[in-house]
Design a protein that fits this description.
By secondary structure, the chain is of the alpha+beta class. The protein is about 35% helix and about 25% strand. Strands 1-4-3-5-6-7-2-8 form an 8-stranded antiparallel β-sheet, with helices on both faces. It is globular. The mean pLDDT is about 85.
């Protein structure tokens, strides 16, 4: 029998097992945990009327984010036509060493959510899968980083150092969007 897609949750679990990545570095949240995190992300970052209809799905392309949440920085991946996720390998330089939530879209309004070391996020995104849309937030829901299926990365919320983001992201062959 050939390879079969198991969804983001199954693929992440398999990748972590096959690469001996401990749960202390990347941990999949259970059904009772992920729904609470998802709800808090919606409350913190997405317009209420948008989230009622769409959840988080494509909020990063359809102006679904709350207007009172600051857009700190935005850029487009891979000027050369190929995605370059070098900035994700340097995420700790932007957000510091901390646990974060990584939300990977499975289907509309269903997400695989992991608690990750900020230094391990790139393992899931860069090495394992290329999800169409993903979101990274701190555990206090002060900020949100999102990449959409148009390769646009957004930094929203409070607590970011814009100069630090610029120094990391723009050195990685990216194009500033705004």
């Amino acid at each position: 029998m050939g390879w079969q897609w198991q969804g983001a949750r199954g693929e992440i679990a398999k990748y972590c097992k096959n690469n001996n990545i401990p749960e202390s570095q990347i941990s999949l949240l259970g059904i009772n945990e992920w729904q609470g995190v998802y709800k808090k992300v919606l409350e913190s970052f997405v317009e209420h009327s948008y989230s009622l209809l769409n959840g988080l799905h494509w909020a990063n392309t359809n102006n679904g984010f709350r207007s009172d949440v600051d857009m700190v920085f935005s850029f487009r991946e891979g000027l050369s036509g190929t995605a370059s996720y070098e900035w994700l390998e340097r995420l700790c330089e932007i957000v510091g060493e901390q646990k974060v939530y990584l939300l990977v879209e499975e289907i509309s309004q269903k997400y695989c959510i992991c608690e990750c070391d900020s230094s391990a996020v790139h393992l899931v995104i860069n090495e394992m899968i290329y999800p169409s849309d993903y979101y990274i937030t701190d555990k206090k829901f002060n900020w949100l980083i999102s990449e959409n299926h148009h390769d646009v990365v957004l930094f929203l919320g409070k607590g970011f150092d814009e100069e630090k983001i610029r120094s990391v992201c723009l050195k990685c062959d990216q194009e500033e969007v705004f």
